[in-house]
Amino acid sequence: MSIDNLKGALPGFAKDIKLNLGSLVTTSSLSEQQLWGTLLACAVATRSPRVIAEVAAEAADHLSDEAFTAAKGAAAIMAMNNVYYRSMHLIGDETYATMPAKLRMTIIGSPGVDKVDFELWSLAVSAIGGCGRCLESHEQVLRQSGLPRDQIQEAIRIAAVVNATAAVLESEATLTAV
């Protein structure tokens, strides 16, 4: 199971996705933990069983147990936060921003890995979740921590490509089952 398996499964009409997926792991400027944690967190965020299985199998070779768990934790906490904060933003009444969320989020403060890595994974998952408020918040923390914009952009590119891979493979599985 691997990224290569996902590339091989993509149909001809998704050639751009296939090429982009391949280049994610060969041209990355992220550290190995940042790269594979981002890939895993994004795979989990897609909810695609195939993408999760393929990425998780390969990520396990590149991540410590703590980092593997933290990447899944980033996907989990952002699944909640993206819905909550996107909704509070879309309502358009800033009064909600002054109200406590009353949601436990202790993993953000103590993720078990370098905080910058966890923030990067949370940012990437937020791109998939479509939460502008979360994207802004995590990008700001990353920039204040000294992460360069090109690496922040790379995490978002990973999110886009992993999400597109899942969308294509899941839609093709559905269409061939019909």
Structure, explained:
This protein has 178 residues and is mostly helical. The chain has a single domain, classed as AhpD-like (Up-down Bundle). Helix content is 75%, strand content 0%. The protein contains nine helices and no strands. The chain has helices at residues 3-9, 15-26, 32-46, 49-59, 65-91, 106-109, 115-129, 132-144, 149-177. The longest helix has 29 residues, at 149-177. The mean pLDDT is 95. This is Alkyl hydroperoxide reductase AhpD. The active site is at 131 (proton donor), 134 (cysteine sulfenic acid (-soh) intermediate).
Name the features.
single chain; 9 helices; 0% strand; 178 residues; globular; AhpD-like; mainly alpha
What secondary-structure arrangement, pairings included, does this model have?
Blueprint: H1 3-9, H2 15-26, H3 32-46, H4 49-59, H5 65-91, H6 106-109, H7 115-129, H8 132-144, H9 149-177
Helix pairs in contact: 1-2, 2-9, 3-4, 3-5, 3-7, 3-9, 5-7, 7-8, 7-9
